[in-house]
Every structure is written in structure tokens, then in C-alpha cells.
Design a protein that fits this description.
Layout (H helix, E strand, L loop, with lengths): L1 H27 L2 H9 L3 H26 L8 H17 L5 H13 L4 H32 L12 H32 L7 H7 L2 H17 L8 H19 L5 H12 L12 H12 L4 H17 L2 H22 L17
Helix pairs in contact: 1-12, 2-13, 3-4, 3-6, 3-10, 3-13, 4-5, 4-14, 6-7, 6-9, 6-11, 7-8, 7-9, 10-13, 11-12, 12-13
Amino acid sequence: MRKHKRVAASLLLGLAAVGFAYYVLPQIVDLGGTLKRLRSGNPRWLVLGVPLEAISLASYVMLFRVVLSRNVRRIGWKASYQIAMAGGGATKLFAAAGSGGVAVTVWALRGAGLSGDAVAEGLLSLEILNYGVYMCALVIFGGGLWLGVFAGGAPAVLTLVPALLGLGVIVVVLSMHWLAGPAERFMLRHAGRPRARSAGRWRAVAHIPRALQNGVNGAVGIVRGRDRSWLAAVPAWGFDIAVLWASFRAFGHSPPAAPLIMGYYVGTFGNLLPLPGGIGGVEGGMVGSFIGFGVSGSLAVVAVLAYRTISYWLPLLPESLGYLQLRGTVSAWRRRDDGRTQRPSAPSGTPDSE
């Protein structure tokens, strides 16, 4: 079984490498020409991307506040801004696949007085609400393009496959509301079998269904509440996509709405690659997706690079300042709680742990 998995993984990686080399690499090898063309972009469209990204970040801060402030009053607007900014910066600087951002966020929330269980439930609820928009967009726009509802057809790998993936994730996560108990017992039963070679793996993942159930219940509770700030998840994604749209307009024309949205979301899968902050993976994924949608390769490259400059690199300044401010905020919380609660340690890889 392990041998077959390794073969399948190697085959998949090889196909991805071939696709990247065939479709994307020829478009970016002329890096000097690409950089020259970046300077030739319409500055008004590029400048427009800055406030659009600011609105996207502010919307995420609003979402963070409504989810994490339920269990502790300390997580107000100021703390939500600082934690969200610090987490975003740590994701880019300290670790791959978002683990650095998670570590900083957990450290800050523990410093605010949340228990480990409350932190886990809150972060899962946040991710369910935030990425629920992601998965719904894959289903709506991927399925719509495949069925011809939206203009701009594309191969099934860029439309139908992501739509089915998004639908599968939605079904699995929501089903944990009812199936967490049976799924947990199933995993523990396999872990307890005599001579079970994968017993350790089953035990390691046995807690996931119950954790997802808590996260789903928390997200449902927020949606049913009176505070509709959770809807900020939509503009958090939407205005970031608008930055990409403005970047395309700066160098020519933008793809139609549905291919633009699908190219953005399919390309964002590059964040899953073991690269710091997804650098290179997202760019390559987006460029390849837009080429698949029929966009000129040279236009896709400069538009995506301009978008990443605005959405990825420019926020590093407020994110760094947010981290510095957060250190002071957490220190103040610790001083107030000194003698009453155990102080959480700074996450590995951050300045506080040195």
C-alpha cells in the first residue's frame, strides 16, 4: 500500500512539474522583460489595488473579531487587528503552509486568556466560515463554467474538478455535526486492533472528527446570532480578487468574472505546497490557471506578479508593526493575569522564544 502511495504521489508530482514546465516556465523565463513590463503598467489601476487590499484586510479583521471575541472580551477591534496582522506576517516569514501564522495566533489567544479547547474551536470556526466562502465559490463558478452558465469555458481540471472538490469538502465538514461520534469510534476501533500497523496514525487523527464538530457548531452558532459581521468573509475574499482584476486592467484587459475568480482560487491552492508563505506556488498556480482559461501568458505573468506585490509584499509593513504591537498587548495581558493564570510560551521560531 505504501509503495503504491509513493508511486501515485511521484506520478502526480511529475505531472505537475511537466505542466509547469510546459505552460508556465516559458512565460516567465524572460524575467527582465517581465520586470520592464511591470513598470509600464497603468499606475492608476495599480494604485487602486492598494485601497482594495486594505478593505480586504479590514474585512478579515472584522471576521476575526466576531468569531474570537465570543469567549473573551479582550479580543476587540484593536487586538483583532494586531493578531490578524501578526499572523499574516508570521505565515510569510516563519514557516510554510501557514503554520507560523497559526503558532503566533494560538500564542496570542492563549495570552488573552482562552483555554486550549476554546482556541481550537475558535480557530476552526474561523476557518470554516472563511474557507466556506472559498469552497462555495469553487462549486458555484467552477460548476457554472462547466455547465455553460458563465462565459469563459475551460478544461474540466479547472472547472469541474475544483467544483467537485469544493462540494466534497463542504459535505464532509458539515457531516461532522452528525457523524463525529461514529467516525471517532471507527478510528479508535482500528487503532485498538491487535497488530495494527497503522494504530498510531489512527490514534493521531481520531480527535479530528470531534474537533471539526466543535468548529462546525461554533460556526453555526455565529451564523444564527444577531451579529452579521461574519459576512465579512465575502468581501475579505472579494476585494482581494478585485486587486487581481485591477492588476489585469493595468496591463490590458481582465478575463471575464467567472474565469477570473476560478483562476484566483485554483491558483491559491499553491499555498498548500511546502513553500514559505506559498511563494512561487501561488504565482505559478495562478499563471497556469489563467493560461488554461485562454489568457495570454505574458499578460497573466505581469498581472499576477503585480497582484502579489500589492496583496503579499505591501502588507508586510503593517503586519510587522502589528506583531510588534501585539507583543506589547500580550505582555500587558500577562502582567494583569500574573499569579492567576499560567503564562503561555511564545511559539517556536518567533522572537519571543529566543
